[in-house]
């Protein structure tokens, strides 16, 4: 991980505690991953849903933060998670069989006119 990516994780101490790793971070895209660890689990070695939601919230907050005007900050006001299957080992990252995508559409004045959240099947 580059020093710049390390510095971004350091801005989010909780994400660092979870073990979040950034592979890429910019105003249009953040790629983050998190290794399964027993201390992050519920019963039977299943990664806690709150850990998955924290990973997603951290990545979403970071991509938003990186696109903000100078001197502005952000805070999550709503978040919805869909759990598709348990994680019992490995690394959590972009899905292989499903991908959830959020698309925002803006007009010429950069006002939000539509937002779509899709779950896509990878075929």
Describe what you observe in this structure.
It contains three helices and five strands, in the order H-H-E-E-H-E-E-E. The strands form two sheets. The protein has a three-stranded antiparallel beta sheet with strand order 1-2-3, covered by helices on one side. By secondary structure, it is of the alpha+beta class. The chain starts with a helix and ends with a strand.
Order of strands, main sheet, comes to 1-2-3
β-strand percent reads 25-35%
Number of strands: 5
Q: Would you list the SSEs in sequence order as H and E?
A: HHEEHEEE
Major sheet summary line:
3 strands, antiparallel
Q: Please, what is the average pLDDT?
A: 85
Indicate the radius of gyration in whole angstroms: 16 Å
Helicity, as a percent range: 25-40%
Stretches with pLDDT under 50, minimum 5 residues: none
**N-end to C-end Cα span:** 31 Å
Given the C-alpha coordinates, what overall shape results?
globular
Overall structural class, as computed from helix and strand content, comes to alpha+beta
Helices, by number, come to 3
Question: Topology, pairings included?
Answer:
Elements: H1 3-10, H2 13-18, E1 21-25, E2 30-35, H3 49-66, E3 91-92, E4 98-106, E5 112-121
Antiparallel strand pairs: 1-2, 2-3, 4-5
């Amino acid at each position: 991980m580059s020093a710049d990516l390390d510095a971004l994780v350091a801005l989010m101490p909780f994400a660092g505690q979870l073990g979040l790793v950034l592979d890429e971070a910019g105003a249009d895209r953040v790629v983050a991953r998190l290794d399964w660890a027993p201390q992050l689990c519920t019963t039977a070695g299943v990664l806690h849903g709150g850990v998955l939601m924290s990973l997603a919230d951290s990545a979403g907050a970071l991509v938003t933060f990186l696109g903000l005007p100078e001197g502005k900050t952000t805070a999550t006001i709503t978040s919805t998670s869909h759990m598709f299957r348990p994680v019992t080992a490995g690394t959590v990252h972009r899905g292989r069989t499903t991908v959830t995508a959020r698309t925002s559409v803006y007009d010429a004045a950069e006002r939000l006119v539509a937002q779509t959240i899709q779950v896509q099947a990878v075929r």
